Amino acid sequence: MEANDKQAVNKEFTEECGKILAAVSDALYAIGGKWKLMIIIAMARGNNRFTELQRQVKGISARVLSNELKELELNGFIVKKVSVGYPVSIEYELLPYSHTLEEVVGAMTRWGMQHREKIKNDIAASGASKS
Amino acid sequence: MEANDKQAVNKEFTEECGKILAAVSDALYAIGGKWKLMIIIAMARGNNRFTELQRQVKGISARVLSNELKELELNGFIVKKVSVGYPVSIEYELLPYSHTLEEVVGAMTRWGMQHREKIKNDIAASGASKS
User: Fold this and answer.
1) Among A14, A128, B12, B46, which residue's CB has the most CB atoms within a 10 Å radius?
2) Could you tell me the pTM of the whole model?
3) Are B89 and B83 in contact (CB under 8 A)?
4) E strand segments, chain A
5) Nearest CA in chain A to B35
6) CA–CA distance from B44 to each of A13, A14, A97, A111 (Å)?
7) Cβ B113–A23 below 8 Å, yes or no?
8) Helical (H) or strand (E) element with B92
9) Chain A contacts in chain B segment 93-122 (CB below 8 A)
10) How close does chain A come to B63, measured CA to CA in Å?
11) pLDDT tens string B9-35
């Protein structure tokens, strides 16, 4: 390959890498962190009230859940519905845009499950080699 | 549906939700945060030295990159190779286990790209409605 061709290929490769990194960075900015995907998953399975979400998403504090819900609303994933009456009832609902995350959630779920299996096997193997 | 049947369905639904949340939580624990996937993507595209990684993964500090590389090594995604000689050369290489992340990276990349398009269109639309 000529030096110029190689340089062109390298440039394209670096640009492509930059594009993928930018896309993943955008995704992490919107849905990254410890909680956002978890909250969306819990909502997709019928947990629509603050207390239900807090019970389902283990370890989240009320303050953090409240902030995360606000950010999810700002990004168009969910909507907060307040029904007037007594007592006032507040429910959070997923908006259609949240469904665009199904592929990401599916991939993360499958990977997390196989990763847990791997860790279990690694621990079993290291136990067996010690005994 | 009988009350007992409904309870059984609810229980199964809650258990399934719990399993998905646990899997995604495991995944986020191992590959969550702002940098790990980005580092793996940059390495998969031929950036194997510390300085290359720091240049490619925009905004990461040397201290954070160093910590992230250590954690990626502990989790079996990469290996640090030190070749003796003068000067000593250090390179990071992906291990086969990192390839199990391809589906997750692909899903995140596609979602990030469409999300960027959506944001652009939202901004264009809000600009048009103002003028």
Assistant:
1) A14
2) 0.84
3) yes
4) 78-83, 89-94
5) A25
6) 11, 12, 31, 18
7) yes
8) strand B89-94
9) 97, 100-101, 103-116, 118
10) 19
11) 666 666 788 899 999 999 998 998 889
pLDDT digits (tens, 9 = 90+) for B48-66: 999 999 999 999 999 999 9
Instruction: Let me know: does A76 contact B115? Beta carbons within 8 Å.
Output: no
CA–CA dist A58, B104 (Å, integer): 23
Give the number of C-alpha atoms closer than 13 A to the C-alpha of residue B76, restricted to the C-beta side.
9
Amino acid identity for residue A26 in this structure: D
Chain B 20-59, residues with CB within 8 Å of chain A CB atoms: 20-28, 30-34, 37-38, 41-42, 45-47, 56-58
Rounded to an integer, what distance in angstroms lies between the CA atom of residue A8 and that of residue A13?
9
Q: A97, A104, A116, A118: best mutation site toward chain B, by most B Cβ within 10 Å? A: A104
The ipTM assigned to this model is: 0.84
**What mean pLDDT do residues B60-77 have?**
96
CB count in 10 Å sphere of residue A19: 13
Which residues in chain B are contacts of A125 at CB distance < 8 A? none
